[in-house]
Amino acid sequence: MQAFRSKAVVQDITVGVALTLLFMILPLAVIIAPAPAVYFSLKSGRGVGWTIVLVPLAVMALTAGSYSIDLYLLLVMVGGVALLLPEFLRRGYGGARTVLFAVSLIMLVIVGSTAIYAFEQRLNVHTEAVQRIRTISSETAAFYTAKSGASGEQLKFFQEVIRQEGELATRIYPALLVMGLGMFTAANLLVIKRFSARLAQCPEIGAFMTFRMPEQLIWLVIAAGFTLLLATTTGQEGGGMAALNLLTIMLSLYFIQGLAVIAHFFNRFAVAGFIRLLFYLLLLIFSYMSIAVLVLGVFDFWGNFRAPRPTENL
Fold it and tell me: Which CATH number applies to 1-120+176-206?
């Protein structure tokens, strides 16, 4: 029995390491690179999960030709999600709190290590980040100019759009980092939810359509909006940037709540799968639909759109 157990553990580690390395190499699959470690940690134990994630991270670090902020963020995000998700799921924290706590701890590691590195190297992190974003924006504009074949006013229009988006990114890059990490963590949680039925102890993740922000946080949105308005009128750039980042993060969460409300009604009225798919495709194309979903999420605080319908006695 012990030999069988050892053989099963070796197989889990081998499969997990192979999948993690494969996912980290493939550009699109990297978003679910932590999933094998999370799954096998829940299935076979903490030691198996740690081995599955640490071996590929060590391989990536040792074989990297040069070290960069991109590689550092990748290693921290993959390692952090792979190690933290199973710990919170074992404790029955549920899907939303697991994502929240994992993102918070990983961001503490990123901010802390960045602050130490910046202090040792005498770097201005904000200046470095702004320069990096503007470089990427310029390279994107140059690539579009070379590949699109556009010219004249159309080319100037798209170049201006890219420039404006780049300038906006220089102000909200902390929020973009938090949101990206949140999406990264949630994607792996969805993978675990999909395969959780195979586990001996199925973790309690919860249904997405029940997601709801704590009611008190609506006042944080209002406070952030008021602070941004005040900072804009008084020229307080630092306070305005902090308020803008906080507002961006909070509104993205209420956008997710709006999606949860829509998922609730899709399920309630048994909407066909192809109609749901069409809706989400249109949501990606038309920005005004995203605004409508955001508004729906915010006003769910007052409307409570998912409340059970009262029973009719007549």
Answer: 1.10.1760
- Amino acid present at 170: T
Q: What is the pTM of this model?
A: 0.90
Domain ranges of the chain: 1-120+176-206
If we measure between CA atoms, which residue out of 116, 128, 23, 120 comes closest to residue 74? 23
Q: How far is CA 148 from CA 151, 267, 272, in A?
A: 9, 41, 37
> DSSP letters of 155-217?
HHHHHHHHHHHHHHHHHHHHHHHHHHHHHHHHHHHHHHHHHGGGSSS------GGG----GGG
Instruction: Give the list of residues 6+ apart from residue 138 with CB closer than 8 angstroms, or none.
Output: 166
pLDDT in tens, 77-105: 999 999 999 999 999 998 999 999 999 99
Amino acid at 5: R
In the chain, what are the helix, strand and coil shares in percent, each to the nearest 5? 85, 0, 15
| Rounded Cα–Cα distance for residues 168 and 101 (Å) | 28
Contacts of 209 (CB under 8 A, 6+ apart): 260, 261, 263, 264, 266, 267, 306
